[in-house]
Amino acid sequence: MSKVAELNVDIRKEISKRENRRLINNGYAIGIITRKGDTSVPIAVRKDELRRVIRKHGRNAILKLHASDSSSYDVMIKKIEYSPLKYDYYHIDFQKVSLNEEIKVDVAIRFTGKEFLESKRLVLNRVMDEIPLIGLPQNIPEFIEVDVSNREDGDVIYVKDLVLGEGLKTDADEDQQVASITVAKIVETETEESGEEVVVSEVELKAGTDK
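Now predict its structure.
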């Protein structure tokens, strides 16, 4: 269940590239508060405070925004844009929410037990990294967990196999593939000096070419 966290934001009275640059140089990320049918509210938020809140409460937490004009908003983070050079927060879209109205949010899929696959020379092939969930804001989780520790070669995980949680649903096709399990491909090579046969995994070969 999402947690409620509090965050202070400043209302942006001036909207210009120059003002945006000034805010960013002073440790802020720019953003907007939106809701369908409502006028958007331009805001700025300190990046260190936003980072602290996300680290403590999670990406899908319900946030109580306290604005500099004394107004307040119940929101969730809809989208985060990062600056291309520093990969730091640049623009945040906050979506107004009501605890009595369902929303749709893309939630990360987290696979656990991958080390057990590796011990059996199996590979997890991820097809989906996130899934759209529909439900009340307070029921939206930080991630959907999928345990693959007991999976075997040839196993396929579909959307219909995911445990979404109470009160949650998805509009993704239930037969859409989430991941599959296959045997790690082995490539046999022969050394020039000794003529000995060396077994190298495909992953190791790829890593070598990336250096």
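The first strand starts at residue 4 and ends at 11.
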